[in-house]
Design a protein that fits this description.
With about 80 residues, this protein is α/β, with parallel strands linked by helices. The protein has one domain (about 1-75). The protein has three helices and four strands. Helix 1 (about 15-30) packs antiparallel against helix 2 (about 35-50) and helix 1 (about 15-30) runs parallel beside helix 3. It starts with a strand and ends with a strand.
Length: about 80
């Protein structure tokens, strides 16, 4: 699986649509303040759906999930 940096891959309409789908999925998963193993699996599946992981996808995941877990605003209902 490749990881693409923002300077090497311009944002296309398709990439923007994928980011929006990921954002919607993450926001739905964390709306109740907790993240289950099934929700995490769906997020990972969406990130890898096109066979490449972009910097923007990782950054979105960091902002919406990891930062909230670190700040105590989101509980993880599974062991990593």
């Amino acid at each position: 699986m490749d990881i693409y940096r923002p300077e090497s891959a311009p944002s296309t309409p398709e990439m923007m649509a994928e980011l929006k789908r990921l954002q919607t999925l993450i926001e739905s998963a964390i709306a109740d303040g907790s993240l289950s193993a099934d929700e995490m699996a769906r997020i990972k599946q969406q990130i890898a759906a096109d066979g490449q992981v972009t910097f923007q996808e990782l950054e979105l995941y960091r902002q919406l999930v990891l930062d909230k877990i670190t700040q105590g605003d989101l509980a993880r209902d599974f062991d990593p």
